[in-house]
Amino acid sequence: MADTQSSERPQRRSRFPLWSKILIGVLLFIVSALVLIRVLLATSAGREFLEAKLEDMIVQGQTVQIDGFEGDLLSSISIERLTVSDEDGVWAEADSIVLEWRPLPLLGRNLAIDAVTAEEIHLTRRPVLIPSEDEEESGSPLKTIDLTELAIGRLALDEGVFPQAVSGTVNGALVWTPETGLIEVNVEPEAEGGDRLVGNVSWDETSPLTGALELNGPAGGLFAGLLQLDADQAVSAKFTASGDTSQLNAALDARLNNESWIRATFAPDDGLHAFEGTLDMLRHPLSAEHADRVGNSIEFFGELDLEEPLETLALFVRSDVLSLSAVDIRTIDDVRSARVSMQVIRPGDLMGDVAISADRI
């Protein structure tokens, strides 16, 4: 009888469940691997091995040459000189690069960079890119980005990268999450009258957009090239925004050769927000190609509630060729509908030369 009772006695349970032991084991492995990598990269042999691996990488036909790699890959590294080459040779050079970052936030898909600095970055021409055969579109792998400091002592772009040579300093910062953001940028020209961009813009759940931006881009310069303007066109723009979702004021004034190109305002109006603006289609070379069909100047205006922008949006667009309105936007069972009206004032201009044929309707 005594033997039977002793055999039925419950076994002692482990103080730690199996899943916790596995988790602890994985964490110990990760920590050990990080320590080992840190120790290896602290040696000259480890740094040479990393340099060789980076230089062996080829992305869209681009190869990298690294000289003077120093530091700790898991906190702060410096590169004395970096060059990028394609099938035609070297097209980009950078000197005295320093990266300070925190790798652990990457485990949660958060990129945390304390500083990226470079003494000089020099682009001699545009690169020859080879498309990747296995390139697939995908969403951003990061949930947040925090770049505390970006500082480039001298950014030089030779003639050919853009119609004329460009040089200046670049400083900035970037914070981005799905709900909030901050962009600080300061691009100052090396010579008077060069490309200049200064601004600070932020947004969060209570304020869609606040801050100010000012841009000046001479003809043939950096910003004129990015906007694909004609060789003799200069661009300037000013943007301001202040307030919250209940009282937001914003204004944009963009000019080409000091002539109005895009103008827009946004302001509170009787419990909602009203917006209005104009776009001169003839100013920009790309939009001028379509001015005959949609009109030389497009005017837009309307209103909305920033708390529910789509459901309250009333939009009106008109030109000397057509007028368009979209109102009464509703969402029912995940299906969105709207009452849209379009009036064509000059059908021939809108449609152009159209030939239609059908064997059966």
Per-chain topology:
Elements: H1 2-7, H2 18-41, H3 44-56, E1 63-72, E2 76-86, E3 89-102, E4 110-123, E5 144-157, E6 166-176, E7 181-189, E8 196-203, E9 210-217, H4 222-226, E10 235-243, E11 248-256, E12 259-269, E13 272-280, H5 285-288, H6 291-294, E14 297-304, H7 309-312, E15 314-318, E16 322-332, E17 335-344, H8 347-351
Features:
17 strands, 17-stranded mixed sheet, alpha+beta, 18% helix, disordered C terminus, 8 helices, 361 residues, globular, single chain
Summarize the structure.
18% of the residues lie in helices and 47% in strands. The chain has helices spanning 2-7, 18-41, 44-56, 222-226, 285-288, 291-294, 309-312, 347-351, and strands spanning 63-72, 76-86, 89-102, 110-123, 144-157, 166-176, 181-189, 196-203, 210-217, 235-243, 248-256, 259-269, 272-280, 297-304, 314-318, 322-332, 335-344. Residues 353-361 have low confidence and may be disordered.
Describe the structure.
- With 361 residues, this protein is of the alpha+beta class.
- A hairpin with a 7-residue loop joins strand 3 and strand 4.
- The C terminus is likely disordered.
Return Rg in Å.
29 Å
Through-space gap between termini: 95 Å
Question: How would a textbook summarize the main sheet?
Answer: 17 strands, mixed
* Overall helicity: 10-25%
Q: Quickly count the helices.
A: 8
Indicate the overall shape. Answer: globular
Instruction: Identify low-pLDDT runs.
Output: 353-361
Q: Kindly report the oligomeric state of this protein.
A: single chain
**Portion in strands:** over 45%
N to C succession of SSEs: HHHEEEEEEEEEHEEEEHHEHEEEH
Please identify the structural class as seen in this structure: alpha+beta
